[in-house]
Amino acid sequence: MNRKESEVFLRLDPARLPQHIAIIMDGNGRWARRRHMPRVAGHRAGVTSVRSTVETAARIGIPALTLYAFSEENWRKRPKTEVDFLMRLLCRYLKAEIRTLNENNIRLRYIGRKHELPPVVQREMAEASEATDSNTGMILTLALNYSARSEIVDAFRSLAEAAARNGGLDHLEVTEQAISENLYTRDLPDPDLVVRTSGEMRLSNFLLWQLAYAEIYVTQTLWPDFRGTHLLEGIEEYQKRERRYGGLGQDPGHSHEHAVPMAHAESKS
What pTM was computed for the model? Predict the structure, then answer.
């Protein structure tokens, strides 16, 4: 860690770190526009932010980190030249970062409709994931061609198909647990903290089911300027909050300092 990161980290309670952090990486285009550069320059600069954020999260012991890298909507709403650049940039990132991921004991995973991505991208994704498969530390998940609504549709589809194989819709059981077990993130705890860069106040179709009780931290920092220090500041803000999960919270006479927030994942274990 650099000096600034260390200063923020020393203010944190290591026993109350989020178990899963999700990040909506936003602001690449505005970053480039303010510098009179093409949008792709912002995407390229954002790779450095990914590296800094991932390394910091792994070093402080965050068990899971999920980054919103490419949405289903990006296919329809971005120029083809920009989408093609993003696919090439992703392939270069996956090749270049394998060593860094292994040095930090990070496992790489993906969520989204991966089968709809270009074959060359799917090959690079598979190779990078396999190269980190034996690591035992933080799980880094990239959301690629991802849509939360599509994820929920796919979960219900899986439930219906399982019921059909088991004798028909009379055997269809729809519960919160059953839906959670059929989401792309079924092997991960729900995020405790979601970070959004660039000051936008929306979830943008990201992990809508899983973020039901997540704390939301919005920073005005554009993604290409985001670093590990900003992540630690988000965690610091998270630790100041009282997580109620629909309850009444603490007795006003009790001190915040003695509250240990329940990890959302505990209800699934």
Answer: 0.89
Long-range residue pairs from 50-54, CB within 8 A, at least 24 positions apart, any chain? 50/25, 50/93, 51/97, 51/100, 52/226, 52/227, 52/228, 53/23, 53/226, 53/227, 53/228, 53/230, 53/231, 54/100, 54/101, 54/104, 54/106, 54/140
Candidate list 13, 74, 135, 205, residue with the active-site label: 74
In tens digits, the chain (269 residues) has pLDDT values of 889 999 999 999 999 999 999 999 999 999 999 999 999 999 999 999 999 999 999 999 999 999 999 999 888 888 999 999 999 999 999 999 999 999 999 999 999 999 999 999 999 999 999 999 999 999 999 999 999 999 999 999 999 998 888 877 777 888 999 999 999 999 999 999 999 999 999 999 999 999 999 999 999 999 999 999 999 999 999 999 988 776 766 654 444 443 333 333 333 33
Residue 95 lies in a domain: yes
Number of independent structural domains in the chain:
1
Q: Which listed residue (2, 13, 26, 154) is catalytic? A: 26
Kindly state whether residue 221 falls inside one of the protein's structural domains.
Answer: yes
**CATH number of the domain enclosing 220:** 3.40.1180.10
Q: Is 26 a catalytic residue?
A: yes
In a domain, 179, yes or no: no
Token digits of residue 60: 């402080």
